Amino acid sequence: MSHQIPVPADDAPALEATGLGLKYRRGWALRDCDFRLPAGRICGLVGPNGAGKSTLMALAAGLLPPGAGSVRVFGGAPGSPQTRGRVAFLGQDKPLYPRLTVAETLRAGRELNPGWDQEAAERIVRQGDLPMSARVAGLTGGQRTRVALALALGKRPDLLMLDEPLSDVDPVSRQELTGALLGEAVENGTTVLISSHVLAELDGVCDYVLVLGGGRVRLAGDVDELLASHRLVVGAHEGDGPVPALAGHQVVELRRTSRQATALIRPAEGDGIPPGEDGWGIGDGWDVLRPTLEELLLCYLRSPQAPALLTPCARPTPEAALR
Length: 323
Ligand SMILES: Nc1ncnc2c1ncn2[C@@H]1O[C@H](COP(=O)(O)OP(=O)(O)OP(=O)(O)O)[C@@H](O)[C@H]1O
What we know:
By secondary structure, the chain is of the alpha/beta class. It folds into 2 domains: about 15-225, P-loop containing nucleotide triphosphate hydrolases (Rossmann fold, 3-Layer(aba) Sandwich); about 230-290. It has 10 helices and 14 strands. Strands 5-6-7-3-8-9-14 form a 7-stranded mixed sheet, sandwiched between helices. Strand 8 and strand 9 form a beta hairpin. Helix 3 runs parallel beside helix 5 and helix 4 packs antiparallel against helix 5. The relative contact order is 0.16.
């Protein structure tokens, strides 16, 4: 089926939040969140339980009104007629009608969504060997997830938000579905925001990350820029005192054994990337390694006190703050 990809009138980011917050009775679920997700990126949303990931997605989907600040979706208000058709959100509960068959579920998707892509939706269902005639009520949790994903992709959204979508899917199907999802996203220029606790699965998949902790943004930006502006350093060091080799750097995390210290560091000032691979000035006897995305994320998750870092493309524009 032909589908015209809506081209934004300007280069509005897929998501832009300024001072975004939401408070429940027990306290702030999300607070003072500033970040920007440019269109076309595959962004991993990471954080410990209760960090605010689902809350952020619900706000961006227009399911909850912000308690403070704002979030814009392609420059518009979440849930508004301007943005509703461009966004698909798959929450953790994956609501489907149990009495409908898979075919009837996809037909409902077609009737409700003007830009419906039947081929894409059927492809996802068929790859799981799911009979179109099967009733949703008789499907396993993983099979329901597949149907829910087919519905979300069939909508051909410009922004696809997936809240731990594959938690009940077996490892082989998980890998296959991730590949299919990304294939569709890259082909259509879809922006994807995907939350997951499986950090290894985000490596090689995401080109952007957003890390939340305690309802606040801890880390946000382009994966290559973030990896380039951090180093894992490993060297001999005894005792609990300061590690002289790390002076002049921002230490995100420092772990010690009796004879060795391992640290994730970044430049002390701003977000500058030291010039060249040997520009870190750590000194002889230390291994200076580029971290993997999983290592970088784990270090930030283990060190909630580390100062937040947003790469330049992840910072909201000054105009956004005035809206
Ligand atoms: N409906 C609600 N009523 C009251 N508090 C809520 C509600 N939903 C979420 N919260 C609280 O808001 C905070 C953020 O929750 P949220 O579900 O957004 O976190 P999360 O990062 O998605 O967690 P998880 O990884 O466990 O899914 C938590 O402290 C949670 O207890």
